[in-house]
From TrEMBL:
SMART domains: Iso_dh. Its EC number is 1.1.1.83. Keywords: Manganese, Metal-binding, NAD, Oxidoreductase. This is D-malate dehydrogenase (decarboxylating). InterPro entries: ICDH/IPMDH, IsoCit/isopropylmalate_DH_CS, IsoPropMal-DH-like_dom, TTC_DH. It comes from Variovorax defluvii. The keyword Metal-binding applies. Belongs to the isocitrate and isopropylmalate dehydrogenases family. SUPFAM superfamilies: Isocitrate/Isopropylmalate dehydrogenase-like. Residues 5-348 form the Isopropylmalate dehydrogenase-like domain. It catalyses: (R)-malate + NAD(+) = pyruvate + CO2 + NADH. Its cofactor is Mn(2+); Mg(2+). It holds the Pfam family Iso_dh. Signal peptide: none annotated.
Amino acid sequence: MKTYKIATIPGDGIGKEVVPAGQQVLEAVGAGSGLRFEFQNFDWGGDYFREHGVMMPDDGLDALREHDAILFGSAGDPHIPDHVTLWGLRLKICQGFDQYANVRPTRILPGIDAPLKRCGPDDLNWVIVRENSEGEYSGVGGRVHQGHPIEAATDVSMMTRAGVERIMRFAFRLAQSRPRKLLTVITKSNAQRHAMVMWDEIAVQISREFPDVTWDKELVDASTARMINRPASLDTIVATNLHADILSDLAAALAGSLGIAPTGNIDPERRYPSMFEPIHGSAFDIMGQGLANPVGTFWSVVMLLEHLGENEAAGRVMQAIEKVTADTSLHTRDLGGTATTADVTRAVCALVSGGV
Ligand code: ATP
Ligand code: MG
């Protein structure tokens, strides 16, 4: 029996509800597919911070390294500054394991009442590739003369040729693997005339390696309107760290709910474990009440299985998710329903273990 070692990091808030639900789905699909998952849970996050003064231990990456993949919940605690929780845990793992490609599929699942009424399910089928290691979130910058009238601060968007080349190549390759072979490169080189111009030039250079991929360039501001007015004109999208961060939240909302959307932080070279997580945050307003929609985590489990090469198992979980979203009696409150996290989890587990 094939065995995979999975690290689970529920983190904070509803992460503690959706990650155990995701674990149950992995166990259920494993039982039906002859796969075994060995889980190791890490209780890092806000509570750990209160006790130890750090979000995760210094040797935390070493503990994760031997795993095949990581299933992450959410980091964020209303009593700890956001940049502390983010940099202290999620970004520490993303950067430590050089998970430079952040991949966010977006689709309107069956039964979901999405806001674009004139848009059919086939008109919105995107994958957003976010540069996940540098750019606007490189951490380069500084603050001087704090509290004085001449105070100044910078956040430098640092892009390296190697960093841009690898994310462009990843995006072109992903576009090539999808039926439409279509890529849109998001830019802002009209206003940002150094790094973004290099970004554009590298897109042209890498495109020559993929003559069968049709691609175009779009300004980030214009792309928000295009996502709403002409969603079917987009398929694979590649953007910088900040641009894709914003566009993928818009994409998730257009697909119906933040609670559904998944993401993978991928090390395409497979030197380190990749990390899969729902895109929503810790949502303290609904925690502990069984209101969290676990579908974003289940879809992240699909991505995790695909990354492990377990496409049959991934397909079974995706089919189960679509059956469950198609049934409005299994919608959680964010989708206008009354089902609980446990109801949805039970239904998906029953479908994956019984064969869909
Ligand atoms: P963070 O600070 O970690 O980003 P947050 O509290 O801002 O967390 P978000 O994920 O940004 O939470 O979500 C905003 C709101 O959307 C939440 O407060 C919650 O009401 C709702 N929401 C988010 N995820 C889910 C989910 N999985 N199921 C149900 N509702 C959700
Ligand atoms: Mg938030």
